[in-house]
Amino acid sequence: MSEQSEDLVEVEVLQSDAAANSGNSGGPMFNMDGEVIGIISSILSRSGGFDGISFAISSNVAKKLLLEG
After folding, report:
1. Which of 19, 23, 38, 55 could form a cystine bridge with 29, CB 3.0-4.6 A?
2. DSSP secondary structure string, 6-56?
């Protein structure tokens, strides 16, 4: 039986194959209607360029963290 730490927090993360450069962290991720759905946090790329997969924290989580802080 495995034990879970009580310090864990559930976080919604979005994954995308949209081009994102390493300097895009903190920028918005939009849906097709132009609505912000997330904040870009990182990219995983074999070449170190903009190709690969990018990750964003969902706008729901960003709002929650903003209102708590």
Report:
1. 38
2. TT-----EEEE-S---GGGTT-EEE-TTS-EEEEEEEEE-SSSSS-SEEEE
Look at residue 32 and tell me whether its pLDDT is greater than 90: yes
The single residue listed with the structure tokens 């991720």 is 29
- Look up the pTM and report it: 0.69
Q: Is the pLDDT of residue 4 over 70?
A: no
Retrieve residue 19's tokens.
Answer: 């081009």
CA distances from 27 to 6, 37, 61, 67 (A): 31, 11, 15, 19
- Domains of the chain plus CATH, in order, are 13-68 (2.40.10.10)
Question: Residue 3 has what pLDDT?
Answer: 65
The pLDDT score that the predictor gives to residue 42 is 84
Residue corresponding to tokens 């949209």:
18
Q: Position 18: which residue type?
A: A
